[in-house]
Design brief:
320 residues; alpha+beta; three-stranded antiparallel sheet; 11 helices; globular; binds adenosine-5'-triphosphate; binds magnesium ion
Length: 320
Amino acid sequence: MDLPMPRLAFDQMPPALKVRVFDVDYIRFREPDGGLLYVTRYGWPLLEHLLPRIWYRQEAFATLGHKLPGGTGSVYYIRTETPMSRPVDLVVKFSRVAQEVPLMIEATFPGEIPAQAAENARFNSPFEEFCLLMDLRRGGMLARFSSPPDETHDDRLGLRRPIQMRTKRPLAIYCPPNEYPLWRLGRSEARFIPHASLLDEYKRHDPRAVKADLDIHRDYVTLFAFVQGLDAETVCRQGGMTDLELTLLTRRVTDELAVRGYRVLDNKPRHFILRPRRRDGQLLVRRGRLVYALVDFELLQRTEPYLDRIEHSARRPAAT
Ligand SMILES: Nc1ncnc2c1ncn2[C@@H]1O[C@H](COP(=O)(O)OP(=O)(O)OP(=O)(O)O)[C@@H](O)[C@H]1O
Ligand SMILES: [Mg+2]
């Protein structure tokens, strides 16, 4: 793939390279071997690091990087080096779309997940995941429906807090050219069809999505920025916080997701990255609260109140 030189800003890229899927903009490159790379606005400044020849060829993610411990899927950390710029820390994660979700979802407060949501649990497709994650980062339901929309919201203590949520940044989706039989990918057609239908439906009302592709026989690899720090479970195990603090943090994360119209079916402390300060190792705190970033969204869902509001606003005639 030839890089456009000199590099244009994301919005200045030729329309022929732009794709919009579930309201998320990508620049899409087709590689000579048929591989497809969809780069988000966040990924655009790091493009050189996201090219598959840097991190994917000869499984560079596994040989130069390492598998992230604690996950049940295929998730790798890799530090990419390019001649022109500083190294970038990436997370490479193979999408589990249309794979079976393990029956026992290991959520910390399983009782709080509606039984139906747990029964119908399915891994997001990469495009769904990026769409939900981008919306959550902006503040989800709070950003969309609070009036007047502003940068902050009142929480239960009456303090003004940012509505944006800290998460890993979604950089790109890569679909390698190879095709595999379904059993190799662990996918079932029945589980795949709803994802494909959702994309088809979106394509019908947004022609900018026409080049987006979801192929049941091909892998989808998602690329994210690595978040520096330690996950909350490890911090607790190392004595950096008590079990009670860990439980309270988990409840806080669950609440902060809910108020934005979201839930993560397997919400758990391993998914919260805390930041020990370099100078003294103390955990970073802002406005009296621990700073955390969330990192796993394959089971991120909108809650019923958010879905209702979206449906309601779609039905309401536009103001003239
Ligand atoms: N972007 C990131 N930055 C820092 N750490 C990360 C990042 N992504 C993942 N990790 C770490 O790697 C672990 C495994 O990643 P992840 O949770 O995405 O894998 P998984 O296979 O979905 O695991 P699980 O089945 O437990 O949900 C996380 O618990 C977290 O500690
Ligand atoms: Mg997971």
